From TrEMBL, chains A, B:
<feature type="binding site">
    <location>
        <begin position="112"/>
        <end position="115"/>
    </location>
    <ligand>
        <name>pyridoxal 5'-phosphate</name>
    </ligand>
</feature>
<protein>
    <recommendedName>
        <fullName>Kynureninase</fullName>
        <ecNumber>3.7.1.3</ecNumber>
    </recommendedName>
</protein>
<comment type="pathway">
    <text>Amino-acid degradation; L-kynurenine degradation; L-alanine and anthranilate from L-kynurenine: step 1/1.</text>
</comment>
<dbReference type="GO" id="GO:0009435">
    <property type="term" value="P:NAD+ biosynthetic process"/>
</dbReference>
<feature type="binding site">
    <location>
        <position position="154"/>
    </location>
    <ligand>
        <name>pyridoxal 5'-phosphate</name>
    </ligand>
</feature>
<comment type="similarity">
    <text>Belongs to the kynureninase family.</text>
</comment>
<comment type="function">
    <text>Catalyzes the cleavage of L-kynurenine (L-Kyn) and L-3-hydroxykynurenine (L-3OHKyn) into anthranilic acid (AA) and 3-hydroxyanthranilic acid (3-OHAA), respectively.</text>
</comment>
<dbReference type="Pfam" id="PF22580">
    <property type="entry name" value="KYNU_C"/>
</dbReference>
<feature type="binding site">
    <location>
        <position position="85"/>
    </location>
    <ligand>
        <name>pyridoxal 5'-phosphate</name>
    </ligand>
</feature>
<keyword id="KW-0378">Hydrolase</keyword>
<comment type="pathway">
    <text>Cofactor biosynthesis; NAD(+) biosynthesis; quinolinate from L-kynurenine: step 2/3.</text>
</comment>
<dbReference type="InterPro" id="IPR015422">
    <property type="entry name" value="PyrdxlP-dep_Trfase_small"/>
</dbReference>
<dbReference type="GO" id="GO:0030429">
    <property type="term" value="F:kynureninase activity"/>
</dbReference>
<dbReference type="InterPro" id="IPR010111">
    <property type="entry name" value="Kynureninase"/>
</dbReference>
<feature type="binding site">
    <location>
        <position position="183"/>
    </location>
    <ligand>
        <name>pyridoxal 5'-phosphate</name>
    </ligand>
</feature>
<dbReference type="InterPro" id="IPR015421">
    <property type="entry name" value="PyrdxlP-dep_Trfase_major"/>
</dbReference>
<dbReference type="GO" id="GO:0097053">
    <property type="term" value="P:L-kynurenine catabolic process"/>
</dbReference>
Length: 396, 396
């Protein structure tokens, strides 16, 4: 297995083992200076001319291509902007327009709530009998019936790490005449994804987790190339217009996935992300996956050996697990706070999930063992205290 | 008139007179170091804990309050996020739900195209006979009939600078039973706005123009406080949920304008904006308006004295003009490029508008005279060349 560790590329705090890169990736070392330069040399010196001279205008597509390479999608099929929630809305609304004879969006209750909320908001907006139907993750396959317009799933469950089989689910969705939308929030940068092979119509994702783009880094959307010139963008912003600087009074969708651009792109935020994405140029996603699984297997074995209070909530089979390991514990919130206070950062997800993410670019086997020692100390010696941690976690 | 010039607070390039702050404001001097510190000390050191410890989570409302003070709105009535185009969609979709018995959005053809496109996209998404009706700016009052659900206007026309009377239009809209949405893109930071007195239901705007938040700075939305707990957010994202960290499966809108939050806020971009907004703490908007009008009147008088080729496109009456002066010239695109090449930065808007913005925080009377001398030199000596400037401007 190739060594893909590049700890030196990140500015990691002292005395911290960061097992929460699946929530917010750490700061790549090169980012601050490059963002500083963008502000001083581009915004400051070029002013409005930066849109052309520094090609801020091309940035959402340029960075989109960098993301495309991580998710097995061709150049020109991904564009950046706004947030993952907005991208979910775009994919769902465009998906429904591709199946106007049907009224049901199918998802599962392991999907990230914001995806379900966005679907709920869309359904309520549309009226006319539109419906969001939600089933348990393991019931999705049976629930893909011929009244489903769009199947929307997050490949890797944000709580348990349980992983859907993208290819199998997509094939069934298509067999039943439904459009497929994948949320890659916990996939992009975490494991190999092959959008082209999946044949799914849409994918969306965020870039502040495994891709290390920083807090509030923009979302992305992929549209299958054969559809990109026909899908109707419900969020018809001027930068998705065919000729934005003609200032026509009527909307004409741009070429391909460019039509999924909406308003003015967040140039400062995109610059941080663009620098962060450069770290992926030499990463083989199969090597990354192998390294991730090795770290997870080590973590499960050592926790099960040393910490009897924790019950595995993630699938035991690595093949159907993303890049995180979750445990159930009744007092998980307080316990996680105590673990964090001792330098091992994971996070808590209601109602009782203690979640740890594995990111082989900056976490190695020694980190895993050191983390287990601290977790064992906290759990086995009851160093957590429900009363001391009344405030709910606000991590994303 | 109080002196409100604070040139030293901005990093302005040498040999440039910047009359395009109505497109992209310049770099406030304090921004780079503060953004750098946010990246190193918060993202880098706190990692995921920054959401609480650095209160990233409260930033969209905290910065919203800073914007609220500029537009005559109370604390807690404005929230930041995404882009102006997304905020337009939120205001329109919520507005339509307040008038379910009507189907027409009324706007004018002086509105910024993206606003019209977003309305067009929404109408097309909704079907059921929804319609966008667009008239000339001077015909708006006559067109507010009793079938109008929502009137959506930009207070200051992006091309001519012509200014609607917010109070009068809103009163008529309400008299006819319509909901009012104001776009303050060319108002916020440009002239006094009194959202409370206007009584309008919604306002939206951007922060990269007069508010100097940087390229791609987020948009804002204002919801009239008496409605904020009842409006339905069509973009129902998790950070607009009442209890986002409960991870409920169903959406429950947050308190007040917080429900207009959607996805994860762009923290780096918001930090630049937050620093930029600090410059407004001691600015009296009436003083700013007086200074802006004085600069504009000087510019009009000197251009009309020295540059016969230019025809005023903006209203001559300062009371109905925003903070810009626009001129018509058949070869405006090439002429503006030639002027820019000589250090006076304005911009061009199709088909024939040469536009100059006046921003009294960093432009003074001497700048105006110096700009006129350069414009006169270019125009009177035919220093522009249609052939030399074939590429369309891409400034926003």
């Amino acid at each position: 297995m190739a060594d893909i560790l590049k700890k030196d590329a990140f500015l990691l705090p002292e005395n911290v083992i960061y097992l929460d890169g699946n929530s917010l990736g750490p700061l790549p070392r090169a980012v601050p200076a490059r963002v500083q330069a963008m502000m001083a040399d581009e915004w400051g010196e070029m002013l409005i001319r930066g849109w052309n001279k520094a090609d801020w205008m091309g940035q959402p597509s340029r960075v989109g291509d960098m993301v495309a390479r991580i998710i097995g999608a061709p150049d020109g099929s991904v564009v950046m902007g706004d947030t993952l929630s907005i991208k979910v809305f775009q994919a769902l609304s465009s998906g429904l327009k591709l199946r106007k004879d049907r009224r049901v969006i199918l998802s599962d209750n392991g999907n990230f709530p914001s995806d379900l909320y966005m679907a709920e908001g869309l359904v309520k907006l549309l009226e006319q009998g539109y419906e969001l139907r939600t089933v348990a993750p393991e019931e999705v396959m049976d629930a893909i019936s011929e009244d489903i317009a769009v199947v929307m799933l997050t490949e890797v469950d944000y709580r348990t790490g349980r992983k859907h089989d993208m290819k199998t689910v997509t094939e069934l969705a298509h067999a039943k005449g439904a459009v497929m939308v994948w949320d890659l929030a916990h996939s992009a940068g975490a494991l190999p994804v092959d959008m082209t092979a999946s044949n799914a119509e849409f994918a969306v994702g965020c870039t502040y987790k495994y891709l290390n783009g920083g807090p509030g880094a923009p979302g992305f959307i992929y549209v299958r190339p054969d559809l990109a010139d026909t899908v109707e963008p419900a969020l018809a912003g001027w930068l998705g217009h065919r000729q934005p600087f003609e200032f026509d009074l009527s909307y004409a969708p741009g070429h391909g996935v460019e039509r999924m651009r909406v308003g003015t792109p967040p140039v400062i935020q995109l610059t941080a992300l663009e620098v962060a994405m450069e770290l992926w140029a030499d990463v083989d996603m199969n090597d990354l996956r192998a390294a991730s699984i090795a770290l997870q297997e080590q973590f499960i074995a050592e926790i099960e050996r040393d910490v009897p209070a924790l019950t595995l909530a993630s699938p035991r089979d690595a093949a159907i697990r993303g890049s995180q390991v979750s445990w159930r514990f009744e007092h998980g919130y307080a316990a996680m706070q105590a673990v964090i206070d001792r330098g091992v950062i994971g996070d808590f997800r209601a109602p009782d999930i203690m979640r740890f993410g594995f990111t082989p670019l900056y976490i190695d086997s020694a980190d895993v063992s050191a983390a287990v020692r601290i977790i064992a100390d906290v759990m086995n010696n009851n160093l957590w205290d429900d009363d001391a941690y009344k405030v709910k976690s606000r991590v994303t």
